[in-house]
Amino acid sequence: LMHHEIGVPADRAWDVVGRHFADIGGWAAPILGSSLDAPAPAVGATRTCHIRGLGPFPAGAVREQLLHYDDTARSLHYQAVDGMPAFVTRAVNRWTVVPLAADRCAVRVHATLTLGRPFRWLGPVLRLRMLGESRAVLTDLEHFLLTGRPHPRKEPARSPGPGPGD
Protein backbone atom coordinates (compact mmCIF):
# COMPACT_ATOMS: atom_id res chain seq x y z
CA LEU A 1 0.00 0.00 0.00
CA MET A 2 1.42 3.36 -1.04
CA HIS A 3 0.26 6.59 0.57
CA HIS A 4 1.29 9.93 -0.94
CA GLU A 5 0.22 13.33 0.37
CA ILE A 6 -0.25 16.10 -2.18
CA GLY A 7 -0.91 19.79 -1.59
CA VAL A 8 -4.09 20.04 -3.66
CA PRO A 9 -7.77 19.57 -2.78
CA ALA A 10 -8.97 15.96 -2.95
CA ASP A 11 -11.50 16.77 -5.66
CA ARG A 12 -8.75 18.16 -7.90
CA ALA A 13 -6.65 15.00 -7.47
CA TRP A 14 -9.71 12.79 -8.03
CA ASP A 15 -10.52 14.68 -11.22
CA VAL A 16 -7.19 13.48 -12.68
CA VAL A 17 -7.12 9.99 -11.11
CA GLY A 18 -10.80 9.08 -11.42
CA ARG A 19 -12.84 11.27 -13.70
CA HIS A 20 -10.01 11.36 -16.25
CA PHE A 21 -9.06 7.71 -15.71
CA ALA A 22 -8.55 7.35 -19.47
CA ASP A 23 -5.82 10.01 -19.54
CA ILE A 24 -3.10 8.45 -17.37
CA GLY A 25 -0.87 8.38 -20.46
CA GLY A 26 -0.76 12.17 -20.34
CA TRP A 27 1.06 12.33 -17.00
CA ALA A 28 2.47 8.92 -15.89
CA ALA A 29 6.01 8.41 -17.24
CA PRO A 30 5.80 4.63 -17.84
CA ILE A 31 2.71 5.02 -20.01
CA LEU A 32 3.16 6.27 -23.57
CA GLY A 33 -0.55 6.68 -24.24
CA SER A 34 -3.94 5.55 -22.96
CA SER A 35 -7.58 5.38 -23.96
CA LEU A 36 -10.93 4.21 -22.58
CA ASP A 37 -13.54 2.22 -24.50
CA ALA A 38 -16.36 4.27 -22.93
CA PRO A 39 -17.21 7.99 -22.82
CA ALA A 40 -16.61 8.10 -19.05
CA PRO A 41 -15.20 5.81 -16.35
CA ALA A 42 -17.76 3.23 -15.22
CA VAL A 43 -17.69 -0.34 -13.95
CA GLY A 44 -16.92 -2.61 -16.90
CA ALA A 45 -15.11 0.04 -18.96
CA THR A 46 -11.71 -1.00 -20.29
CA ARG A 47 -8.66 1.24 -20.43
CA THR A 48 -5.80 0.42 -22.79
CA CYS A 49 -2.35 1.64 -21.76
CA HIS A 50 0.64 1.54 -24.09
CA ILE A 51 3.62 1.08 -21.80
CA ARG A 52 7.38 1.28 -21.93
CA GLY A 53 9.12 -1.90 -20.89
CA LEU A 54 9.72 -2.06 -17.14
CA GLY A 55 12.12 -4.72 -15.89
CA PRO A 56 10.49 -8.09 -16.61
CA PHE A 57 7.43 -6.39 -18.14
CA PRO A 58 7.87 -5.91 -21.90
CA ALA A 59 6.75 -2.83 -23.80
CA GLY A 60 3.29 -3.22 -25.28
CA ALA A 61 -0.36 -2.69 -24.48
CA VAL A 62 -2.10 -3.61 -21.24
CA ARG A 63 -5.89 -3.64 -21.03
CA GLU A 64 -7.42 -2.87 -17.64
CA GLN A 65 -11.08 -3.29 -16.73
CA LEU A 66 -12.75 -1.15 -14.07
CA LEU A 67 -14.17 -3.38 -11.35
CA HIS A 68 -15.28 -0.58 -9.01
CA TYR A 69 -15.80 3.14 -9.56
CA ASP A 70 -17.21 5.44 -6.88
CA ASP A 71 -17.07 9.14 -7.70
CA THR A 72 -18.44 10.14 -4.28
CA ALA A 73 -15.93 8.06 -2.29
CA ARG A 74 -13.15 8.95 -4.80
CA SER A 75 -12.25 5.29 -5.20
CA LEU A 76 -11.65 2.92 -8.11
CA HIS A 77 -10.31 -0.59 -8.65
CA TYR A 78 -9.23 -2.14 -11.92
CA GLN A 79 -7.80 -5.44 -13.07
CA ALA A 80 -5.47 -6.20 -15.96
CA VAL A 81 -7.36 -8.37 -18.43
CA ASP A 82 -4.77 -8.59 -21.20
CA GLY A 83 -1.13 -7.80 -21.87
CA MET A 84 0.52 -8.90 -18.63
CA PRO A 85 3.49 -11.30 -18.71
CA ALA A 86 2.52 -14.97 -18.55
CA PHE A 87 3.91 -15.37 -15.03
CA VAL A 88 1.30 -12.88 -13.67
CA THR A 89 -2.03 -14.64 -13.20
CA ARG A 90 -3.85 -11.62 -11.73
CA ALA A 91 -3.06 -7.92 -11.33
CA VAL A 92 -5.42 -5.59 -9.46
CA ASN A 93 -4.86 -1.95 -8.57
CA ARG A 94 -6.93 0.15 -6.15
CA TRP A 95 -6.75 3.96 -6.03
CA THR A 96 -8.40 6.15 -3.40
CA VAL A 97 -8.14 9.90 -2.87
CA VAL A 98 -8.75 11.02 0.71
CA PRO A 99 -9.14 14.66 1.81
CA LEU A 100 -6.77 15.68 4.62
CA ALA A 101 -7.58 19.41 4.64
CA ALA A 102 -9.24 21.85 2.25
CA ASP A 103 -6.00 22.12 0.25
CA ARG A 104 -4.37 18.74 0.90
CA CYS A 105 -5.16 15.12 0.14
CA ALA A 106 -3.67 11.64 0.26
CA VAL A 107 -3.61 9.38 -2.75
CA ARG A 108 -3.53 5.72 -1.79
CA VAL A 109 -2.56 3.00 -4.22
CA HIS A 110 -2.73 -0.70 -3.43
CA ALA A 111 -1.45 -2.99 -6.18
CA THR A 112 -1.75 -6.77 -5.93
CA LEU A 113 0.04 -9.15 -8.28
CA THR A 114 -0.64 -12.87 -8.16
CA LEU A 115 2.13 -14.94 -9.69
CA GLY A 116 1.84 -18.42 -11.17
CA ARG A 117 3.18 -21.10 -8.82
CA PRO A 118 6.52 -21.66 -10.59
CA PHE A 119 7.23 -17.92 -10.46
CA ARG A 120 6.32 -17.13 -6.86
CA TRP A 121 10.00 -16.94 -5.96
CA LEU A 122 10.02 -13.65 -7.96
CA GLY A 123 7.59 -12.12 -5.45
CA PRO A 124 10.07 -10.24 -3.23
CA VAL A 125 11.96 -8.82 -6.21
CA LEU A 126 8.77 -7.76 -7.99
CA ARG A 127 7.42 -6.24 -4.79
CA LEU A 128 10.45 -3.96 -4.48
CA ARG A 129 10.26 -3.06 -8.15
CA MET A 130 6.53 -2.30 -7.98
CA LEU A 131 6.97 -0.16 -4.85
CA GLY A 132 9.58 1.91 -6.65
CA GLU A 133 7.40 2.25 -9.76
CA SER A 134 4.35 3.16 -7.66
CA ARG A 135 6.33 5.87 -5.85
CA ALA A 136 7.49 7.26 -9.20
CA VAL A 137 3.94 7.31 -10.63
CA LEU A 138 2.65 9.09 -7.51
CA THR A 139 5.46 11.64 -7.91
CA ASP A 140 4.42 12.04 -11.56
CA LEU A 141 0.84 12.67 -10.40
CA GLU A 142 1.94 15.21 -7.80
CA HIS A 143 4.06 17.11 -10.33
CA PHE A 144 1.18 17.14 -12.82
CA LEU A 145 -1.29 18.38 -10.20
CA LEU A 146 1.02 21.11 -8.93
CA THR A 147 2.34 22.37 -12.28
CA GLY A 148 -0.21 21.31 -14.89
CA ARG A 149 2.62 19.65 -16.83
CA PRO A 150 3.98 16.09 -16.90
CA HIS A 151 7.09 15.39 -14.85
CA PRO A 152 10.33 15.93 -16.85
CA ARG A 153 10.97 12.16 -16.77
CA LYS A 154 7.79 11.76 -18.85
CA GLU A 155 9.39 13.47 -21.83
CA PRO A 156 11.72 10.58 -22.76
CA ALA A 157 8.76 8.21 -22.50
CA ARG A 158 6.66 10.09 -25.04
CA SER A 159 6.52 8.89 -28.58
CA PRO A 160 8.16 11.34 -30.97
CA GLY A 161 5.67 13.42 -32.87
CA PRO A 162 5.95 14.42 -36.50
CA GLY A 163 8.94 16.60 -37.30
CA PRO A 164 8.81 19.96 -39.04
CA GLY A 165 7.33 19.63 -42.48
CA ASP A 166 5.76 16.22 -41.79
Task: Please explain how this structure is put together.
With 166 residues, the protein is α+β, with helices and mostly antiparallel strands. 21% of the residues lie in helices and 37% in strands. It has helices spanning 10-19, 123-147, and strands at 2-6, 31-36, 46-51, 60-70, 75-82, 88-101, 104-115. The chain has a seven-stranded antiparallel β-sheet with strand order 1-7-6-5-4-3-2. A hairpin with a 4-residue loop joins strand 4 (60-70) and strand 5. The longest helix is centred in the C-terminal third of the chain and has 25 residues, at 123-147.
Helix and strand topology:
Layout: E1 2-6, H1 10-19, E2 31-36, E3 46-51, E4 60-70, E5 75-82, E6 88-101, E7 104-115, H2 123-147
Antiparallel strand pairs: 1-7, 2-3, 3-4, 4-5, 5-6, 6-7
Write a brief caption for the model.
Helix content is 21%, strand content 37%. By secondary structure, it is α+β, with helices and mostly antiparallel strands. The radius of gyration is 16 Å and the shape is globular.
Read across the widest sheet, the strand sequence of neighbours is 1-7-6-5-4-3-2
Low-confidence stretches: 157-166
Query: Which of globular, elongated, flat, extended, rod-shaped describes the shape?
Result: globular
> How many individual helices?
2
Which sequence of SSEs, written as H and E, runs from N to C?
A: EHEEEEEEH
Total E-strand runs: 7
SSE-based structural type = alpha+beta
Using the CA coordinates, give the radius of gyration. Answer: 16 Å
The CA-CA distance between the termini, in Å, is 45 Å
Helix content: 10-25%
Proportion in β-strands: 35-45%
Largest sheet report = 7 strands, antiparallel
> Which whole number gives the mean pLDDT?
89
